Automatic annotation (TrEMBL), chain A:
CDD domains hit by this protein: TM_PBP1_LivH_like
A Pfam family annotated for this UniProt entry: BPD_transp_2
Signal peptide: none
Designated name of the protein: Amino acid/amide ABC transporter membrane protein 1, HAAT family
Topology in membrane: Multi-pass membrane protein
From TrEMBL, chain B:
Span list, region Disordered: 406-433
Positions of transmembrane segments: 20-40, 52-78, 127-150, 157-180, 205-235, 256-281, 293-317, 329-353
Record-level GO cellular component terms: plasma membrane
Highest rank taxon of the organism: Bacteria
The keyword Ion transport appears for this protein: no
Chief site of localization: membrane
Protein name according to UniProt: Amino acid/amide ABC transporter membrane protein 2, HAAT family
Amino acid sequence: MFGYSMADIGNIVVMQGFSGLSMFTVLLLMALGLAIIFGQMGVINMAHGEFMTIGAYTTVLISKVAASYGFTNYYFVFAIAIAFLLAFAVGYFIEFIMIRHLYKRPLDTLLATWGLSLVMQQIFRSSFGAKEVSAELPEWMLGSFKPTPDIDIPINGVFVMVLAALVTFGVYMFMYKSRWGLRVRATVQNRTMAGAVGINTAKVDRVTFALGCGIAGIAGAAFTTIASTGPTTGTLYIVDSFMVVVFGGAASIVGTIASAFGIAQAQSILQFFMTSSMGKVSTLLVIVTILMMKPEGLFASKLRK
Amino acid sequence: MTLWEKMKASPVLGGKEGVIGLAVLAAIIFVVLPLGVDIFRLNLIGKYLTYAFVAVGLVMLWGHGGILSLGQGIFFGLGGYAMAMFLKLEASDPLSTKIQSTPGIPDFMDWNQLTALPWFWEPFKSLPFTIFAVLTIPALFAYIIGYAMFKRRVGGVYFSIITQAIALILSILIVGQQGYTGGVNGMTDLRTMLGWDIRTDSAKYILYFVNGLLLFGAIFLSKYIMSSKFGMLLLAMRDKEERVRFSGYDVSNFKIFIFCLAAMMSAVGGAMFTLQVGFMSPSFVGIVPSIEMVIFCAVGGRASLIGAVYGTLLVNYGKTVFSETYPEMWLFLMGGLFISVVMFFPSGLAGIWDKYATKYGWFKDKAEPVKKPEVSIAEGEAQAVLTETTPETTLAAKTNDAVIKKATRKKAAPKQTEPAPAIDSNKMRGAEA
């Protein structure tokens, strides 16, 4: 196949598979946030990519500060926390001034948040410049380890994967095991009844939206370890993340993980054998075709229509 | 009856107000602008007016049908590329391409080491086929997408997201397949159409007028459809899809039809774009142009055909002015426009106009009232989801009574701002999925 030996193909699949894993983690983190915002609340947040960019720029800035004070090795933990908090705060604010007026018009949230994403992109461009910037990675994150001579696995990839696993676990615990998660699910399922039993639904909405944005902020922090950040970085991922959420079945965490994995791996491996654009095209085409046949996604909860 | 009375009474034109609105638009497009601006600017306006085809299609699809397609750039692009392929083939005859290693094929193919014309380029050597292709290929493509999705009752936001993904796929594909499509630069250096040089000033004037006439054709066709029973059904579907379905109509077929029609209009716009601007590139196909076309329509008023034309002109004029003088401000402005139109003026310019026209009683028909299906909406979409009361919008659609219309609007408006009215999200999801 394509003039490679079987052993070569094995190695290519492992290595491309691994580079696919880095993309998988970013997609997963983005999609988790979206799964909460879109899957639970039904809000189409086209500015989700820009919340990721907020996280990425925060990490870059903190890394610059850390580098000038000489504690590059430890800054990343703080960067993740601050990226989360900042994106959370912006999300909270945006929900308050904009999103809450549009809950009954899902198509209009799409347009309004698209406008928001344009504004945010221009803010990034005005304040950080149009050039892409990258974070100074801590030394322990550089380099790679080699289980066999032909396979090279970068450490930063392993790191973001661990991070993504932790965040996914956290989201799961929050949504399904905590008091807050219960309130969120109650509000989504029946807003009026939730309000009647004393849940402050407006507040639940605001926190849920902000949480989704905060997770996008973490995605941004993870993103800085694998690529450099520019004002329009977020737009590269927005369609992919939406496809992940829709493909996985909007409200299902397992579905989100599975489809993020599938999409990232398919793209990464196909991109090696075809050109990068054709890899992306064929992946998206397959997803769209499957979605046309099975519009509710792979892991949709069984709902009678 | 005199002609004037006939026109006023025609349900297609929408009464006195409709006739005057059309006449004013016609005067602006065919008289004021050609006399008032030089050919360079007029050509630019002609370019904007090609987007208006898309906006008019979106008024029917989104404003009246409640289907938000974020992939209208696909059809604009398909139409534009079909025309560009014909013009490109004519521009690359063996004589003018004799310095290439393979004369007679478009220059970008030669640069990409293609030695023969690909099979799907062959039919575009003929103009009749090209025109046929402009009209049918996008419609066929829309039919496939529409059939696959509407038959399975995929609607609402899912439809938007998937059409957006298709727009992305197509633009990546065009950029990626350089040898067949000209890649990111698109098809440039288009010169003649059947030997007629399209770059001269006189050709630009002629194309501008042809474009304007076609646009009016599209508007009249849309008006005709809106005033028919189908137009009523479309509104009813937007507001209460389930009820229409339970009344025995096959909702999906109507949706497919309107989607195909909007696609066809976009494609005509795309073909006219290529003719007037002289090139076609993937930057008119992807996500960004597709969603910008939605905002043209939203600014003009998503339910108003004429409003959509004004919206397109206004936004594009603003874009040109601002990107010439303050390029940095433009994105802020565009973003702000998206947000403010959605949040504060959901019915756009047409809504503002309606408000004052009704308030001061301009253009009120004193004679026999005519059927007027155009309702100012935006509340409609909200209502469709949240109220279980009588379908007021459909009621309003059937009467021309401004009082009822006003009352409806008043009744509907506060509902929007109320926090959390009875809303059954399961039902909502069910309707969307």
